[in-house]
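Handout, section B. The chain below has 279 residues.
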Amino acid sequence: MTEPTPLFFDSHMHTPLCKHAVGHPVEYMEQGVEKGLAGIIMTCHSPMPNRFSHRVRMAPEQFEEYVSLVRSASDAAPDGFEVRLGMESDFFPGMEKWLTELHAKADFHYILGSVHWHIPEYLDTFWRGDSDAFRRQYFEHLAESAESGLFDALAHPDLVKNANPDDWNFGSMRKAIGESLDRIQQTGVAMEINTSGRHKAVSEMNPGPEMLAMMAERDIPVVIGSDSHTPGRVAESFPEALDMLETAGYETVSVFRERKRSDYPIELVRTSLAATAST
């Protein structure tokens, strides 16, 4: 009987350079091999200028160190397993030129865009004491991030539901989310289902099932990322994420290489992961 062929990638994980993750990229690679993946994409938090959000990201002068760390994991990987260079870059109005220049500094396979509502700079600029207005602003920025042309996919796209989670109500945000998704659809940018949402205040994946169904209605491509900040979470809850995608109406799931998207049948990905897990 032939051995199952690994097929899929975990498209979101970090390194200690972001100051809130642990484990060398080699350890993430080793966990990816154990989980039956074909590869991983390292996407540590991008450096930003002028100490912007500096407590949770690499410094600009550490960028080459980051590239070297990812290369070392690639060099250590067994034959057939890929470690691809990516970056999770913050979208923040006015930072577009910085990111354009940053993304040209290395041969990236994948650029993941994030709107991090909880960083001090974002809160100081956009929080005015009204939770719903703040959330609508977030979804406006999510659309703007897609329209910027800077990113291949958008990370944890309903992350803002964790702002004042006790009064989160999807129904009250449905219109704003729909308008944002309509704009994102026009760009061709993919979106992420992020399995680490289960560990946040609103304990469900990002996005939740309602928003995921709205994305499926618009045929917006989806990647899966664990958002691992420790090696043990690589590929965490991927079978459940595949189930959610199918329930929402998806038939394929995506991976990026050289900034180009490839789509894989969900059932084929599921079979690959299940077969490896059973060996």
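Note. The two ends are 12 Å apart (CA to CA). Compare this with the example in section A.
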